[in-house]
Amino acid sequence: MNAPPPAASSGPDLRDIHLPPEPSWWPPAPGWWLLAVLALALLLAGIWWWRRYRRALRQRRQVLRELDRLAQQHQRDGDAAALAGELHQLLRRVARRHDALAVQQRGDAWRQTLARVPVDAATLERLLALDQQIYRAPTAFDHAAAIAAVRRWLQLALKPAAWKPVATERADA
């Protein structure tokens, strides 16, 4: 038997199947945009935290250097009243960062402000003795113990997390 002749095609000539082009890398999918924004936010927060930490560290070092300078000055001139006054002013300046009224406080209010930093009772008493030492006639003054007490208090006070919250007074009406 003879094969029938090829039929004349009545339709278009078909070409081979072509795949669509690869997707472009730009613009990225919404998930990548979200990831980029999150990474940028984390980077900015990290930079902010790092700068804040460095500033606080610089301030701590500056205050402790000032304390060392006061101790060296006392070794040179031996003026106990001047040392007590300068140490007292240093305490008030640091306390003012956490309590604006610290520069005006006297007596029990000043004790409460100093006690907001968790130090032992002996350290607290030495700090309170500085206030009295300023106004007394020259007496025996343990400057090494006073400087050590101020240093202990300052090392804790210069860390904002160490401060206890202000005790609010109850209004008994």
TrEMBL record:
Keywords: Membrane, Transmembrane, Transmembrane helix. The chain crosses the membrane at residues 31-50. InterPro entries: DUF4381. This is DUF4381 domain-containing protein. It comes from Rhodanobacter thiooxydans.
